[in-house]
Design a protein that fits this description.
The complex is a heterotrimer of chains A (about 850), B (about 300) and C (about 425).
Chain A: H1 7-25, E1 55-61, E2 70-76, E3 79-85, H2 98-107, E4 117-119, E5 129-131, H3 134-151, E6 156-160, H4 169-177, E7 180-182, H5 190-199, E8 207-208, E9 215-219, H6 222-226, H7 235-245, E10 249-253, E11 266-268, H8 275-288, H9 294-300, E12 306-307, E13 315-316, E14 319-324, E15 329-332, E16 346-348, E17 351-355, H10 356-364, H11 369-376, H12 380-393, E18 399-402, E19 405-408, E20 412-415, H13 425-438, E21 448-449, H14 458-462, H15 490-498, E22 511-515, H16 519-522, H17 526-533, E23 538-543, H18 548-553, E24 556-559, E25 567-571, E26 577-583, H19 596-606, H20 616-624, H21 640-650, H22 658-663, E27 665-670, H23 673-676, H24 695-706, H25 711-714, E28 737-742, H26 756-759, E29 766-770, H27 771-776, E30 784-790, E31 797-807, E32 814-818, E33 856-863
Parallel strand pairs in A: 6-7, 6-22, 9-10, 9-20, 10-11, 22-23, 23-24, 28-32, 29-31
Antiparallel strand pairs in A: 1-2, 2-3, 4-5, 4-24, 8-21, 12-17, 13-14, 14-15, 16-17, 18-19, 25-26, 26-27, 28-33, 29-32, 30-31, 30-33
Chain B: H1 13-25, H2 28-31, H3 34-39, E1 59-64, H4 73-82, E2 92-100, E3 103-111, H5 120-124, E4 130-132, E5 138-140, H6 150-154, E6 161-162, H7 181-187, E7 220-221, H8 227-230, H9 237-241, E8 247-251, H10 258-265, E9 268-269, E10 281-284, E11 294-295
Parallel strand pairs in B: 1-10
Antiparallel strand pairs in B: 1-8, 2-3, 2-11, 4-5, 6-7, 9-10
Chain C: H1 18-44, H2 64-75, H3 77-89, H4 95-119, H5 123-132, H6 139-171, H7 178-185, H8 192-225, H9 238-264, H10 273-304, H11 307-317, H12 322-344, H13 350-372, H14 374-377, H15 393-416
Helix pairs in contact in C: 1-15, 2-4, 2-9, 2-13, 3-4, 3-8, 3-9, 4-6, 4-9, 4-15, 6-7, 6-8, 8-9, 9-10, 9-13, 10-12, 10-13, 12-13
The chains are: A alpha/beta (about 850), B alpha+beta (about 300), C mainly alpha (about 425).
């Protein structure tokens, strides 16, 4: 692209100005004039053209967000002066989001970590560090890794925040070192992913097939503000608007109106934590009004399987039985030309059996909209009407043709990312999936999708029969009688570390490596986590900024590069068009920082786990699936660029990594319907039966009981989603408000509240409160209040001070805070106010099933001066 | 004492004399500006831009409120592209609430400079620093502005931003601190490190100093529609960055541009048309914000 | 002709008593402070003031400087108006205060010019570009060029002609100031012809000045009155109201000065009470007219209740600026009452007249702020958050410095030239 020109001109002009100043006013100092008189001296007339500066536009991948958008960077004299969107990238199509634009200043942020640091003061207080050489720092960490690995690999814990690419160096390190891995997933939508894997067999959370969806139930702020499943922000609104222009109707289900802006046709402000009840009521009406896709249920789910009174399937020769209406007898579900019944009660020998669907119908009988009105705070008629609209728009029985494949057409969908972030998350998502199973919409054209392409996930089978290890063999209680399905919630891990005996855990981890994660602010239940981190003997932090966690607990801090490094590979699909991308450095790493892969290779070398079989390099080979011809030699440390060059060539790109350095993104064309829709597989859904009825959940429940787990652990392992009042509602009545957290578009998916350009847009934390509710409490706009949360089981209370913003777009019984802020190390983070994360509780009562974090808690709010 | 020649009375006598006296009084008063009129060229930036004539390029912006998600990306894109300093929002995005719970709406409204054809700011500028370009852009000459801020008080949309401080001292980060030593080395001490060189160029056939921001203390600045990009054939930064394509920029005299097409196909409004400012920014996809709108998440910049 | 008594210049010209010296020192100190403050403003930029961007800046772009620009130019009304009225309407009995008024005009205009310079962000550019690139389309053209230049120019000439005779007289007295008086007299002999010529010229000048007067103060009104984008400003009444308010503040200040000098220079015999009666009545009438204008303006706005106009009114009546608005109104009303009572009872007391003069000037200053600020902080057409404007010490110091400078110039003039026609030294005045 065309080059600008200035550098020389600037310097020349300023010289002229200085001269002008001198001549004009003798000794007048420059600020008197600051170039003001230039024009009078004929200097404003057209600049003599200086020759162009060295300027280029280079492609790379955005660093700050979650979905790795394509970036074109304008570089002048080696300075990055602007980041714009890469037009060829399917996810952002030449655009960039607010964070993507602002990150340019953080690339040059003088308050980034500049050199490896070693702690010189005690832990638990704001840290003082001394700069040391990379070698010294790496040796310290490497020795610690060696020390604990020699004892017990489980003593080494590795914790990472949001991934910036497909798993590579992280998994490689985990595998090579045998470290126990903690993701952020427990705070994300893991329960949703697990529900997807368990019920449908795919790894993901419900999101719409926007190109064909015409009726969208939009849960929370996703579509407008958060993106969701595997994507960040830009892509969803773009696809959302396309669908809108095709006439998609949108119903927003959210206690807080904000996110969806003007883009919702209807707003249903439901009570926090009541989503399960809501979905059950929807299903109730759908069945009542016969919006049921019998063909799908009979052929692709276990709905027709016969269930015995004890809740288990009726089996013969290990095969689940269905009731064949043709022969009026029980037959194996996969027997030839069987026509299974969905309803009714039958007798097989002496046992009375019902199809799972009948059990479901009986189960739903009590969940009427009128019943749900209490739980959800939504008027029964609205629920009824919404269910009818869903049913009518589902076009049950209609087919359509996509890429020459005839497929069921069910243009109704839901965007349900993060529904999981509540106590009953797993079952709530299951209930949502069931609603769309009734309509036969799952993985149909226009229906809810779970993954981008149809890939069966290992967990589908694994969840068929849970294995329980007792006592637990790990601090996350994975596969234990407490949390058989498990997301390794760091908050729960902290609770275990603080009381291992209670959970029968017989060891205490000693070394923690934290990678680009800030548990002291980003995760819920920060007080518990802080207490637990005191127990680590040694903590190393790899980050680009000195995180609050590092300041409080790190023994060693290793400076990581931000966007100025090789990283990848990146999935670049927007679900319709597939592509691959890479992050390539625009400049040399700032300061002494290094790219992660460099850091891990050096670290592994120090810890003697770099070379040889199952060493780090070997793991890189595996993670990248390099063809033998391109495998890295296991005996010598490679250049990072060389790693990706081999990967690219192994992918069949002759130019190697140069291709990405030139083009940034490699588009692969649209995803064919055959890979896209489960229905388009032969056989459909690769022949699996979707788990409409969760028999194995019942089995694991009894297993847990047998092993002596208390009710709080097993109560929600029910074959069919069953409503119970969330634990938080047991808090005393003076805690009369629900606190929910959310994301702000300015900061979401990144620790960004201290990036000056963004901080200016949303300078301070605010508690969103309904104006009427506030008036009732004598609270005025911008008043400072205490928000005090209450633990319904332990009675523990926590509080923080924050300013109020009165709005109309929120339920009167709900208050909301974005879960950003609460940082204090970076100069721009000071005085921004608290994060609500310290008010939430992890562990029993606030997590269940999959051990996922609930971002909901009962609070009371009162004026600060009263305290 | 000087002698006064006794002269015959005659008509106009007194005036003659007093005229002579004037001269004696000397230049003191004259210096105070009267002389200025003689050299005054008062035809720069005539207030009323000539009526758009077909064929001639007349830029304008269309903002599709049906698409805007209020994400404020345009604001950031503008800040980086034009190197605007703290508390300066050439592009600003309002977030509104309308109505009461639960019957309420949330709406967004991006607000660039309206580049009015009948611009109050151009009319009141005492030195012609604020002027209309032939292509419809309302520009500010950083070399000409005297910083009287009349344009700012005259603008109904409050799009003007004054350099209350030396721009170098109003940066988001202090690039001169010891902490920034390595940054200065890496960027040859340019402030800010992402400084856009194009902003120092002269633009238009009149070759005036009108692009970008953060140039001179005590001078007024505002949105330029990224004149430096437009003259290169690029879209303004806000437009090219908008993730949802809510901002459309183009030649409104050319019926083939997307902008013109939208104005033909959709109902549009302009802000405060009643004031007769003839803005060149058109809004489609939603009725104008009513009197009952309340701003939420508003920004108050701190210089 | 001769200067009469003891062949020395009257009214303490050239004599610096201790009191005067103290006064001068105090003034110099305040000026120094003002200069320091201005230095700060140049150094830091106008971030040193309380002004900020309108809209997202949450402030007002014009503040005290503009308010006082308007005030100073307003005050300048008095001199030239009185002077020309004396000529045109043959108000002989006002002649004693004529020169005081003329000097007041000139000083006020200089302060006006300076307050423009301290307000603009680029003072040097302003000096050079305002004339070089002057645009008549801008109301500021009127303010800068017409008022501050033309008006000042005319006033200087007026003062010059009016003072020529006394200059000639003073020039007879040997002393350090003789050269100055000679230069001024420029060979004037006070022959009948010369007398006639001066009368003649001044009469025409007076006639010419009257429209200039109206024009000048109207232009200032236009600066605000023709801005449709600023609720609270856009009004046809601004121009006339500015003319009248100018008169009110100008005459008010003239009364104060006249009374002060009468006291200090012991001019009881020369400036008789009738002068004050007349000025007092004039002040009363003009203040009433202004109050009437205000009432009309407020009624027009509030009756219609037009949205934004209303919000500006509310913030003035009950909001942030209530104290300022009602304070202003209160002062005006009080002044009128004080004068009206005396007028009705035909019994005038100098202190009371002076008091009303002070009151209306305070009110005038207040009113200027009420005009300038609220429409910016609360008159945004788009729903920005309301703004705030609180002047900083820099602004206050600079304004104080300007007042001190004005006073100093005035005092200096008194000491180099008779502030009243020499002829009045002898009872009964000239001839």
């Amino acid at each position: 692209m065309e080059a600008g020109r200035a550098g020389r001109a600037i310097s020349r002009r300023s010289f002229v100005k200085a001269a002008a100043a001198a001549t004009a006013l003798g000794a007048a100092s420059p600020w008197w004039l600051n170039g003001a008189m230039g024009p009078l001296l004929g200097e404003s007339s057209a600049e003599a053209a200086a020759e162009p500066l060295p300027e280029e536009w280079r492609p790379t991948t955005c660093w700050i967000g979650k979905q790795d958008c394509g970036v074109l960077a304008r570089i002048v004299e080696g300075r990055v002066v602007k980041l714009e969107g890469e037009p060829a990238h399917p996810r952002n199509r030449g655009t960039l989001c607010v964070k993507g634009q602002a990150q340019i200043i953080s690339l040059y942020d003088p308050y980034r970590l500049k050199a490896p640091l070693v702690r010189v003061n005690e832990k638990g207080v704001p840290g003082q560090f001394k700069e040391v050489s990379w070698d010294e720092a790496l040796t310290l960490v490497g020795d610690e890794i060696k020390r604990v690995r020699a004892k017990d690999k489980r003593l080494l814990v590795w914790q990472k925040g949001r991934s910036k690419s497909e798993p590579l160096y992280d998994n490689a390190f985990g595998n090579a070192s045998g470290a126990f891995k903690l993701g952020h997933g427990g705070y994300c939508s893991d329960a949703g992913y697990r529900a997807g894997e368990y019920t449908i067999g795919l790894n993901g959370v419900l999101h719409p097939d926007f190109r064909h969806t015409r009726f969208l139930l939009s849960w929370g702020w996703n579509a407008a503000n958060a993106g969701g499943n595997k994507l960040c922000w830009i892509t969803y609104p773009r696809q959302f608007l396309e669908a809108r222009s095709q006439g998609m109707k949108v119903v927003a289900l959210d206690p807080w109106r904000g996110g969806l802006g003007p883009h919702a046709d209807e707003w249903l402000p439901n009570r926090p934590g009541s989503d399960l009840a809501f979905f059950l009521a929807l299903a109730h009406v759908l069945i009542q009004e016969h919006f049921v896709d019998q063909v799908y249920l009979k052929n692709h789910t276990n709905a027709p399987f016969l269930v015995q009174p004890d809740g288990y399937f009726l089996r013969a020769e290990g095969k689940e039985q269905v009731w064949d209406t043709a022969t009026d007898s029980a037959k194996a579900f996969d027997a030839k030309d069987v026509t299974p019944a969905l309803e009714g009660e039958y007798a097989v020998g002496t046992t009375k059996v019902k199809p799972a669907f009948q059990v479901y119908m009986d189960h739903l009988a009590r969940y009427t909209p009128e019943w749900a009105a209490d739980a959800t705070g939504l008027p029964a008629p609205s629920i009824r009407r919404l269910a009818r609209e869903l049913g009518r728009n589902a076009l049950i029985g209609y087919n359509t043709v996509v890429n020459g494949v005839e497929l069921p057409h069910r243009p109704v969908s839901i965007m349900a990312y993060h529904v999981a972030q509540q106590e009953l998350g797993f079952q709530a998502v299951r209930a949502a999936i069931q609603v769309f199973m009734l309509l036969g919409a799952i993985e149909a054209v226009g229906g809810p999708r779970i993954d981008f392409t149809y890939k069966l996930h290992g967990n589908y089978k694994a969840f068929g029969d849970f294995k329980i290890t007792d006592p637990p063999d790990n601090i996350a209680l994975r596969g234990s009688k407490y949390f058989p399905i498990n997301s390794s919630l760091p908050g729960m891990v902290a609770k275990v570390m603080l009381n291992p005996a209670k959970y029968g855990v017989d060891y205490m981890p000693e070394v923690l490596i934290i990678h680009m994660s800030n548990p002291m602010s980003s995760y819920a239940d920060t007080p518990t986590i802080a207490a637990a981190y005191k127990k680590y003997k040694f903590i190393a932090v790899i980050d680009a900024w000195l995180s609050e966690t590092a300041s409080l607990f790190a023994d060693v801090v290793l400076p990581a590069a931000t966007m100025e490094k090789y990283e990848g590979p990146m999935a670049a699909s927007d679900q319709y068009d597939d592509a691959q991308a890479m992050r390539v450095p625009l400049t040399a790493p700032m300061f002494q920082s290094k790219g992660e892969i460099d850091i891990y290779m050096d670290l592994c070398e120090k810890a003697d786990i770099l070379y040889g079989k199952n060493g780090y390099i070997d793991e890189i080979n595996k993670q990248l699936g390099l063809k033998d011809a391109y495998k890295l030699p296991l005996d010598k440390k490679p250049q990072v660029r060389d790693i990706f060059d081999r990967w690219a060539k192994s992918q069949g790109i002759e130019e190697g990594v140069t291709y990405f350095e030139k083009h940034g993104v490699r588009t692969k064309g649209f995803v064919s319907a055959r890979d896209f829709y489960g229905y388009a597989k032969t056989p459909p859904f690769e022949g699996i039966r979707h788990r409409f009825y969760g028999e194995s959940l019942l089995r694991v429940q009894e297993e847990m009981k047998k092993k002596g787990a208390e009710k709080v652990y097993w109560q929600d392992y029910t074959p069919l989603p069953t409503w119970r009042t969330p634990t938080m509602d047991k808090s005393p009545s003076q805690y009369d408000l629900y606190l929910i957290s959310r994301k702000k578009i300015e900061f979401k998916q990144s620790r960004a509240s201290f990036i000056p350009l963004l901080a200016e847009l949303a300078p301070e934390q605010r508690l969103d409160m309904n104006s009427e509710a506030a008036r009732a409490r004598g609270i005025k706009d911008e008043d400072e209040v205490w928000v005090e949360s209450h633990h319904a089981l332990t009675g523990e209370t926590r509080k923080l001070k924050v300013k109020v913003r009165l709005i109309e777009g929120i339920r009167p019984d709900t208050v909301s805070m974005p879960h950003h802020y609460g940082l204090w190390v970076h100069p721009w983070a000071k005085g921004q106010g608290p994060t609500p994360n310290s008010l939430f509780f992890a562990g029993e009562g606030y997590i269940t099933n999959t051990q996922d974090q609930s971002f909901q808690v009962k609070v009371r709010v009162y004026k600060a001066k009263e305290a | 004492m000087a002698k006064v020649a006794s002269e015959p009375k005659a008509k106009g006598y007194g005036t003659q004399l007093s005229r002579r006296d004037f001269l004696r009084v000397g230049g003191t008063a004259a210096a105070l500006g009267t002389a200025g009129f003689l050299v005054a060229d008062r035809f720069i930036g005539d207030a009323k831009a000539e009526a758009p004539t077909p064929g001639k390029v007349r830029y304008g912006m269309v903002i599709d409120l049906e698409r805007c998600f209020g994400c404020r990306t345009c604001m950031e894109a503008c800040k980086v592209e034009n190197n605007t300093t703290r508390a300066v929002f050439w592009m600003y995005v309002f977030r509104f609430e309308e109505g009461r719970y639960p019957d309420m709406q949330v709406r967004y409204l991006p607000r660039p400079c309206m580049h009015c054809d009948n611009a109050p700011c151009v009319k009141v500028c005492p030195v012609g620093a604020r002027y209309k370009r032939e292509d419809g852009l309302t520009a500010t000459d950083w070399d000409r502005c005297i910083g009287c801020r009349y344009c700012q008080v005259s603008c109904p949309y409050s799009v003007n931003y004054f350099n209350w401080k030396d721009p170098k001292k109003n940066q988001y980060l202090d690039w001169k601190t010891p902490e920034a030593v390595e940054v200065r080395q890496a960027t040859k001490g340019v402030i800010p490190p992402y400084k856009n060189p194009d902003l120092e160029e002269r633009y238009g056939k009149e070759k005036r100093y009108i692009a970008g921001s953060g140039h001179v203390k005590g001078v007024m600045e505002k949105c330029t529609f990224c004149v430096h990009r437009v003259e290169k054939g690029l879209m303004p930064a806000c437009v090219s960055s908008c993730p949802v394509g809510a901002l459309i920029f183009g030649n409104l005299n050319d019926p083939e541009t997307e902008a013109s097409r939208l104005l033909r196909q959709k109902r549009f409004f302009r802000l405060e048309e009643g004031l007769g400012t003839e803005p060149r920014v058109y809004y489609v996809g939603s009725p104008p914000p009513g009197a009952s709108v309340r701003q939420i998440e508003g920004i108050v910049g701190r210089v | 002709m001769d200067i009469g008594t003891a062949n020395r210049i009257p009214y303490g010209v050239g004599k610096w008593g201790a009191g005067w010296q103290v006064l001068v020192l105090i003034l110099l100190a305040i000026i120094a402070l003002g200069l320091y403050a201005y230095g700060q403003q140049l150094e830091i930029g106008e971030a040193a003031t309380g002004m900020r961007d309108i809209g997202t800046g949450g402030g007002a772009a014009w503040g005290l400087y503009i308010a006082f620009l308007v005030y100073f130019v307003g005050v300048s009304f008095a001199g030239i108006a009185i002077a020309s009225m004396i000529r045109l309407l043959d108000l002989e009995h006002l002649k004693p205060v004529a020169r005081m008024a003329e000097v007041l005009t000139i000083v006020a205009l200089i302060l006006g010019a300076l307050s423009i310079l301290v307000d603009v962000g680029q003072p040097l550019r302003a000096l050079l570009y305002l004339p070089r690139y002057a645009r008549p389309q801008s109301p500021f053209f009127g303010t800068f060029s017409l008022v501050v230049s033309g008006y000042l120019f005319a006033s200087l000439i007026y003062l010059y002609l009016d003072g020529r005779k006394d200059a000639a007289l003073c020039a007879q007295v040997p002393g350090r100031l003789q050269w100055f008086h000679r230069l001024w007299a420029a060979g004037y002999r006070d022959t009948p012809e010369e007398k006639e010529r001066h009368r003649h010229t001044s009469w025409w000048l007076a006639l010419a000045i009257m429209p200039l007067l109206v024009l000048a103060h109207s232009t200032l009104g236009f600066v605000f009155g023709i801005q449709p984008g600023r609720p609270g400003w856009f009004s046809a009444l601004q121009a006339p109201a500015f003319v009248v308010l100018a008169g009110v503040s100008g005459i008010g200040l003239l009364i104060v000065i006249a009374a002060a000098l009468r006291q200090v220079l012991g001019l009881k015999d020369q400036i008789g009470m009738p002068v004050f009666h007349w000025l007092g009545s004039l002040l009363g009438v003009m203040t009433l007219i202004y109050l009437y204008f205000m009432a009309v303006e407020r009624l027009t706005v509030d009756y219609s209740g037009a949205g934004l106009e209303k919000s500006v009114s509310e913030v003035m009546y009950t909001g942030t600026y209530a104290w300022l608005f009602w304070g202003t109104v209160g002062l005006f009303v009080l002044a009128v009452l004080v004068l009206a009572v005396q007028f009705a009872r035909r019994r005038w007391s100098l202190p009371l007249i002076v008091l009303s003069g002070v009151l209306v000037n305070l009110a005038a200053i207040g009113k200027r702020d009420v005009i300038v600020v609220p429409s910016q902080t609360h008159g945004t057409v788009l729903p920005y958050a309301p703004g705030v404007y609180i002047p900083t010490w820099v602004e206050l110091a600079i304004i104080a410095g300007l007042f001190a400078l004005g006073t100093l110039v005035y005092v200096r003039f008194i000491k180099v030239f008779p502030i009243m026609e020499v002829s009045y030294t002898t009872k009964g005045g000239a001839e």
